[in-house]
Design a protein that fits this description.
Blueprint lengths: L1 H8 L2 H11 L7 E2 L2 E2 L8 H24 L9 H37 L13 H5 L11 H16 L6 H25 L11 H35 L4 H33 L15 E2 L3 E2 L8 E3 L6 E3 L4 H29 L3 E4 L3 E6 L1 E7 L5 E5 L4 H4 L1 E7 L4 E7 L3 E7 L6 E5 L4 E4 L4 H15 L3
């Protein structure tokens, strides 16, 4: 599992490093977030900064890559997973620190040499490109993936309802809304302002069409991938491995589509603006903090085309932009909180006891309460190979703690709270549910079993 998680998370680093290295190539007169005139790009000071930038980025890549290896040596799942999650933040942050330092160095070089453009501090707008009617992808192109994503919803409504009906309906409807949202995002994309580089109207119009065309294809492809993923979630609902593999495949396909879209757009941008930067050209560096954070109170757009990285970014000066940034910050803060919860789960002992009225399983909170008068049968299970073939449907699965809903061998679906390394286990059958309980040792399990038998009248 840890190898699979590593393979899933590690690509974050080469993707970020690759995109940031690509920023050293001039696109729309911009090099690592700094607008430069045509004659400045090949000067010795600029090339020296770019050479050091590439070297430092590769050093950062090696250091951060090595930092992921300890996760394979940690014996506890929660600690290893926490290391990986915090490593992701490290993998995102370190390359951007290298980028920011090079950006500031190049910006100082620009100021020292007087390379600011005539339009510095101004926003150039070419209304012809912005208001020209684009060639829209018709809505019916998005209808098939939307229909595909609704198949799980229809299948669920036709099945008998169980305790998971509400949760699964919410999940399947969310998937369908994501697919439908791809069309909404595609239409919203055209509200971005035109990609003005200089006074050449034809170039501005070409750049705008290229971005609109490529990202239109991206949203259509995302809709189809998301529709197929919705089907996979439905088919593999009770198969954790199948669901995990489907998630990995979906994520990989989405990343490939995203990268292909952005890199294709960048190639055209680079070729169309190869000789730009002469005469009057756009220079809005003052609106981009560290070359990547857009803050422009005079721009009414909330989303704007990103200078670096992928797709679009938010205008921090707009209320919606500030709200979105706060939301993203809270999501990042949730990562350490989630890691702390996982560590607490794995290292907090669980306790199964038999009171006068019920069997109670406690772990951080009361996991299960089974009334004694609802028990139909009590027996001991060793499971043998059932543990090896068991699969988690929902809950927690550590080496020393299973808690939640599992599918185990010949028992099938059951609720468990046990240490899988300490058989035997107590099987408790009620009218509609099978429970498996365990203790820290065989002696404790046998003692608990006898107490339950006595309390239930040896059912």
């Amino acid at each position: 599992m840890m190898w699979l998680m590593l393979l899933l998370m590690y690509p974050v680093l080469p993707i970020i490093v690759g995109l940031l290295l690509n920023e050293a190539k001039p696109k729309k007169n911009i090099v690592i977030g700094v607008t430069l005139p045509y004659e400045a790009r090949q000067t010795e000071p600029v090339q020296s900064i770019l050479k050091a930038y590439r070297r430092n980025m590769w050093i950062a890549f090696g250091v951060v890559s090595a930092a992921i290896l300890p996760s394979l040596l940690i014996g506890h799942v929660s600690l290893a997973f926490s290391w990986l999650m915090l490593w992701v933040l490290f993998a995102i942050g370190v390359p951007y620190v290298v980028y920011a330092r090079a950006h500031l160095r190049l910006k100082r070089c620009k100021a020292a040499n007087g390379w600011a453009g005539e339009s510095a501090g101004k926003t150039l707008v070419e209304t012809g490109a912005a208001t020209s009617r684009p060639r829209w992808l018709r809505l019916w192109w998005f209808v098939p993936p939307i229909a595909i994503s609704l198949v799980p919803v229809a299948a669920l409504l036709l099945q008998p309802r169980d305790e998971f009906f509400g949760v699964m309906l919410a999940v399947y409807l969310t998937n369908a809304l994501v697919v439908a949202g791809c069309y909404a995002a595609y239409r919203y994309l055209y509200r971005n302002r035109a990609e003005v580089v200089d006074a050449a109207i034809a170039v501005t119009q070409a750049l705008t069409r290229v971005r609109r065309y490529n990202w239109g294809r991206f949203w259509l492809g995302t809709a189809y991938l998301s529709g197929l993923f919705a089907i996979a979630m439905w088919l593999f609902f009770e198969n954790v491995i199948g669901l995990l593999l489907a998630t990995c495949a979906y994520t990989a396909a989405l990343l490939i589509l995203l990268l292909c879209t952005e890199l294709a757009t960048r190639r055209v941008q680079s070729s169309l603006t190869m000789t730009s930067g002469q005469g009057v050209y756009a220079d809005d560096d003052a609106c981009w903090l560290l070359g990547s954070i857009y803050f422009n109170p005079h721009d009414t757009h909330t989303l704007v085309n990103n200078r670096i990285g992928l797709g679009t970014t938010v205008n921090w000066a707009r209320p919606a932009g500030k709200a979105l940034i706060i939301f993203c910050a809270l999501c990042l803060l949730m990562i350490p909180a989630m890691c702390g919860w996982m560590i607490a789960e794995e290292f907090t002992p669980f306790r199964v006891s038999c009171t006068e009225s019920a069997i109670v399983a406690d772990h951080l909170y009361t996991a299960y309460t089974v009334p004694l008068d609802a028990i139909e049968r009590v027996s001991l299970e060793t499971l043998n190979g059932g543990i090896v073939t068991a699969s988690k449907i929902s809950g927690t699965a550590y080496d020393s703690l299973w808690k939640g809903t599992f599918r185990i061998g010949s028992i099938g679906r059951c609720e468990v709270c046990l240490n899988p390394q300490q058989p035997p286990f107590i099987r408790v059958d009620t009218a509609d549910t099978v429970y498996l309980f365990g203790a820290d040792s065989e002696a404790q399990t046998l003692a608990l079993f006898e107490k339950i038998r006595a309390a239930t009248g040896a059912k």
